[in-house]
């Protein structure tokens, strides 16, 4: 069964394909109301769906944007994608969603797919910090906005980010004020700039208090399983750890699972802090203390800025959002 075309409608209506096209594209000035109604009725009865790609080619706009994220299973990315999609729909744009598993080959594959689908722009959260995909977007003049993970070195690409270092500083200072000294830090993948920024926040504060020990920095992978695994490593390294600061909430949740299984009491034996403030963090027991990224606002802003760029309005370059300590039951 082939897709219904304008030719099919023209044959049934007994008019030319050009007449059908003018009616369906609201350009039918010199066509009688009777003919217009007949054509629209046939199109409806046949469930005719305009060819989006053909329309994009003629109008040079698809009213569609692409969203590329590293890991859909991580609620941070699904929550930010939700904000982008809400905002896009309000601005009458559709979205095509791509999950890359933090794999730069998949990133490149999806970038090329989105370009072939004639998207008007792309919102890009990179998995590995590889800027090759950005070169492809630049070469094809596809507007894009980076979110969360900054990978621009010299170029000042348009991006929406969280003040990562500031957020970690606030969390470490809070733990120190609560008498914790032996604080382990679990970073994300060290290849990422956000991991470097978060480690720096931890290292600076611990050095300011003459408590810095590089052996208490452990490299995580931003996954829940990775959180469990790295927590076992931490406890094997030092059973008297007083607090663990995880670079994202799902690693903290994995760590909590491991510690509770081993009979630790949270927070009495070990305090736990996460980073992100994904919705589920408020529903575990004890509820997770975390550094809240303004996830929804970041997604909303990124989408607004991208659509401003698509519509030819100059955009501000880097926009930064402040994180906020949310104290709950794990500290
Ligand atoms: O949870 C995933 C982490 O990677 C978040 O902290 C977010 O910043 C993303 O980059």
Automatic annotation (TrEMBL):
<keyword id="KW-0805">Transcription regulation</keyword>
<dbReference type="InterPro" id="IPR046335">
    <property type="entry name" value="LacI/GalR-like_sensor"/>
</dbReference>
<feature type="domain" description="HTH lacI-type">
    <location>
        <begin position="4"/>
        <end position="59"/>
    </location>
</feature>
<dbReference type="Pfam" id="PF00356">
    <property type="entry name" value="LacI"/>
</dbReference>
<keyword id="KW-0804">Transcription</keyword>
<dbReference type="InterPro" id="IPR028082">
    <property type="entry name" value="Peripla_BP_I"/>
</dbReference>
<dbReference type="InterPro" id="IPR000843">
    <property type="entry name" value="HTH_LacI"/>
</dbReference>
<dbReference type="InterPro" id="IPR010982">
    <property type="entry name" value="Lambda_DNA-bd_dom_sf"/>
</dbReference>
<keyword id="KW-0238">DNA-binding</keyword>
<protein>
    <submittedName>
        <fullName>LacI family DNA-binding transcriptional regulator</fullName>
    </submittedName>
</protein>
<dbReference type="Pfam" id="PF13377">
    <property type="entry name" value="Peripla_BP_3"/>
</dbReference>
<dbReference type="GO" id="GO:0003677">
    <property type="term" value="F:DNA binding"/>
</dbReference>
